[in-house]
Fold each of these.
Amino acid sequence: MKKIGFENFRSLKNIEDIEIKPLTVIVGKNSSGKSTFLRAFPLLKQSIETKTNSPILWYDPNFVDYGSYDECLNCKAKEENVIVFRYCFEMNSKHETSYALFFRKRKQVYGEINLEITITKEKDNEYVKQINLRIDESEINLCLSKSSIFESIVINGENLTPKIELHGISINSIIPQMIAKEKDNFSFNFDLVDNNIFKILGELTRKGTKKETLELMLHSFVIGGYEKFYKSFFKRGYPATWYERVKNREKNDPLFITLYNYFILSNLNHLLAEVDSYLSTYFGQVYYVAPVRATAERYYRIQGLAVNSIDPRGINLPMFLENQSKTDFLKFQKWTLENFKFEPIVSKEGGHLSISINIDNQKINLADTGFGFSQILPIITQLWFVINQNNSRNSSTKTFVIEQPELHLHPSIQALLIDTFINILNYSADKRIDLKIIFETHSETMINRIGQQIAYNNIKNDKINIVVFDTDGFETSTTTGLYDKKGQLKNWPFGFFYPDKISNNAF
């Protein structure tokens, strides 16, 4: 994921798309929209992972609570009545999308994808109203009705809406796919589109070329921007007449443009499925840590559940640690001892678990330590185990979203946490793991520590994005702060961490 942006989403009326770097820091005064932005990550995660009747699941007790569509719609956008989610990412799909409906031979999708999903509500019906998709320089605009019927399909400005009625169907997804209803059966008739394509291919090949040959050509074209599509004209294996007639035409010949537009329409279901698959995979690998984490308890009841991730508040931390293999847990203990000068210990007593902290060979129950240990332990535990787990999904991007990691931590530990973030990012880069850490903070110590790490060449300044949120009470605005190569902040609001002047009339 390269960038994320929103329109009419609470106070985020129309903020500039925010670039997601390996380390992205969100700062700003209270109620400036920071949490709205950060919690949009688990919002999409809970929406994708839960079967719902509407595109977005606004409330999930295990993740985040946005209330409802009406509560999320910006107060100045009541007449407009739409919320827009914007995403920018690079598509280089080589995996098969198992749940895609009614498309034929699998094809690869290449290019930078800019996606806009527009959601609206009419009476009690929330639905996807519009999907705007840009692949490199090419644009696809889809409009849907409240009954999920595709009202228009426009590709590069050309209206290619079929005469048949196309319904939008979503299966555990946000982006619907197209199907046509015929005699109580749902299908997608590719022949209606392919006939137009074959007519164009027929003009560019020798008369009498077999349909099987044209189909092979069609399947060898690349789904992506027009530039990539055009380059695929010159692959080996096409009829000789094709090369002669293609070379005699300009690159932007209207016939080529029409062929490309129909080709995209022919593969539109596959393209929508691949984009939806990307979103599902990306947000499925989002790990969210809430700002109010659970306080430590002396004992935790053993529930016999398989726990493979830590919940946002760290409530199931004891069960998660108990489920780890002895080898992995010993490695984790060694890592925490080396980096934080303590090691966690999980003990069984009857039907209960307890967590203790070993500091200088002194074992202390977590409930008897300060709040700092119970606040930092869910963060570093989730980070370490996700990065060190060995499974088939390690190739996908892993995104950690953390609200106020500095809670209850002494400034020296806050600085140490930044050191840990940077060490894990460097470790992940060496292991070719695409890791992103996004956190919101009010800590001047953490901001300064990042600059110090840059100055000591432990991380490059271009790997960090720091975004300052501000608000007029109704709309959020953002500015991007920059670290230079010496770790000094540029484009930073003067006196950002300073309190207001003391009034002489206070008392």
Amino acid sequence: MAHELLQYRNLKLFWNDVALSDQLQKLNTPAYVYSRDLLTQRFQAFQDAFPKGRLHFAMKSNHNEALLKHLHQLGSHLDVVSIGEAEKAIQCGFRPDQILFSGPGKTQSEINKALEWGLFQINVESADEIQKIKKTGMRARIGLRWTPGLDVKTHPFIKTSHTDTKFGLSFEEIDQLIPEILKDPHLHLQGFSLHLGSQILDLSDFDLAFSSYLEMVLSLQKKYPEMDLKTLDIGGGLGLNYQNSDVDADTQRLQDYKKIVERHFGKIPFQILFEPGRFLVARSGGILTEVQVVKKTKNKKIVVLDAGMNNLMRPVLYQAHHQVLPLIQRKGESEIVDLVGPLCESSDFIALDRSMSALQVGDKLWVADCGAYGSSMASDYNLRPRALEIFIEDLESLRA
């Protein structure tokens, strides 16, 4: 039987066994609400699955300061994609040697700072990046990011491993770069990197890519025995089903992923690096929003919320689905409505053609699974103020 994080009990919405109407009814909206308990559970589950692995949380998915500090306390490392993220990570208590630096367009200034600060590893994604690193004259620990040419089954905007992508290097490019790297005493090629994309639900994509990845690494190691490899970064990308909140299904998906990882990498001598983001934090947060307007046009019922694409870009950008549920459910027939935001932009919506119980102005709604790529992709479009971010466990201190 499925274990749903979101359940109605006597018409009240419960999230992780907490009655949201009791806890959030007086909270100003819109607001991102996180659960420290859920975050801890999900981090620990991933770490337990890979006790010898190094978990580098993908900071791009959520860079909330309190959330990062909690992950630091749990023993997480970080994957960053800008020097701004690295700087904030250090401010939150992470050591430079806990920070992996990825991204396809690193500037000379970013590379300079990354090397001055002593970040754990720079994942190199182009020949030009090697030249920028060499220009510094500083010792650099690097990994080469390989692009396998695999067209994974996910939204086209979040796949990163197909042939014509800005991310990573082909096998031929890597093979050409290694001799140059090995000749430079300042460059230490300590590993390789692979990241297929995001929100991957078909695990056969991982199986196929990991097989090719290991084959490539072993062939290069044989060709260049002087390489001193220490790490294999296998990226992130493990997805979840946004249509429900079934954490048992998430657990099973993690276990299936574990079997694939162990089959390919269980006996190799390298440190395995992971870059989980969404799988750790998406279920650990949601958006509280309030109904501002209910209007009926000739063909539509439109409900205007105070949260829009400035708070949650995913529905507009990726046609992503998020459950939207009233904190208190009314009895009676459901109706089909468009749930839209308040911005002066016709594309501003949270959900279209969604079946909802009757809604009224002032009703509070919960937009589920917004802990990843919610606040980190937010904007101040229309000069809307940034929404509050708070852990539900800290609400008592806020009220005080």
Amino acid sequence: MNARVRTVSWSAALAVCLVAVTLASATVGPVAIDVLTVAKATLNAVAVPAGIAASVRTATVAGATLPVPVPDVTYAYPFAFRVPTASETIVRQVRLPRIALAAVVGFALAAAGTVMQGFFRNPMADPSIVGVSSGAAVGAVATIALPLAVPFGLQTAAFVGALAAAFGVYVIASEGGRTPVATLLLAGVAVQTLLGAVVSYMLLQSGESLRQAVYWLMGNLRNSTWAEVEVTLPLALLAFLALSAYARDMNVLLLGEVDAQTLGIEVERTKRLLLAVASVITAAAVAVAGVIGFVGLIVPHAMRLLVGPDHRILLPTSALAGASFLVATDTLARAGPAEVPVGIVTAALGAPFFLYLLRSREVHAL
């Protein structure tokens, strides 16, 4: 079976799994709603872009009010099933935004984790290995705990902090136009440690904001909105398409940089692009959901055991599996009598599963 057929087959199966997990998740909550009602309300929420226009909004930067042009998209809704108003409101306005954001974040983290594991040729690598999560934590905690006036809010501060950390790691590790993978890894560990110390200090100074800051650091999807999905989803899809275009190059890089160069791959250029795109997609996910561990580590590794190391198959299947995984774990996080941050659930499930893999068989070689 060739790679294209295997990709389509696995992706179709995982897409069906994602739909099933989504419908099951939307039935869970303080108000019981049957799956048929959920399915109808979900279809009613399907929107098709019908037009686009330009509108002007204002933003305050350093005390000055600036006009900001933004696209204004209008949508058409092709489905109109009859659903009780209360049930439709709960599904469309409360549960679906959270489920959709969980799917997007899981998709992004798993895709980035797949790239990082291939990039470093190490199945223990994850999206935060170049300091992205630590940089986001500095930006977010600084906004929460310190009396700082950030023009565009916590999520923008986290996103900028994540990209700044990744860029700093890249600059530190680069020398003479080359970026050795081992140096990049060590620079990432050092920067993560330093930024972790910065976050700890800010938490000590946070006072009454400590609870909010710690809650963000644990990773959570509470109070998710469609606006967050609308911002994060296009970015995640564009980054995924960019990474997919380099799936063959990632396969060749697994042979080693010298062999890849011999086979015609522009190694340094490819490494820069993969690192940049993976950092952006991770930063977007962390900015809206906080630090959620193990998704970008365990999901790509598990899928590699199932489908093999070919990134043409591994990248889309890992992304879809990551979406399903985070939707399922977030459902568990909010299913109990008291909701817990989803980052706790992913760690509690991911760590034992990963240890089981290590004990039951060798880690799959890259």
